[in-house]
């Protein structure tokens, strides 16, 4: 092996950051890239399944973050409405 060679060419189990640590934008951008990679269809079944599972985890992270944002907006609207109705 050459001294300029790094790694085995195979992604390890921890090659990607934990979706729970990603912001919405980071998860969404990685999900878009994951879909593009899957659409190329140039991987083995095992590789495709790993990307599919990663995509599912990223989509779930986006959903959780959007649900949280939605709840915050509803809370803010509810607070604003209760503040104006008391005036």
UniProtKB/TrEMBL annotation:
Q: What is its EC number?
A: 3.1.11.6
One Pfam family matching this protein: Exonuc_VII_S
Give the superkingdom in one word: Bacteria
Q: Subunit structure of this entry?
A: Heterooligomer composed of large and small subunits.
Listed name of the protein? Exodeoxyribonuclease 7 small subunit
Origin organism is: Corynebacterium mycetoides
**What's the catalysed reaction?**
Exonucleolytic cleavage in either 5'- to 3'- or 3'- to 5'-direction to yield nucleoside 5'-phosphates
* InterPro entries membership: Exonuc_VII_S, Exonuc_VII_ssu_sf
Upper lineage is: Bacteria, Bacillati, Actinomycetota, Actinomycetes, Mycobacteriales
Report the protein's function: Bidirectionally degrades single-stranded DNA into large acid-insoluble oligonucleotides, which are then degraded further into small acid-soluble oligonucleotides.
Q: Where's it found, cell-wise? A: Cytoplasm
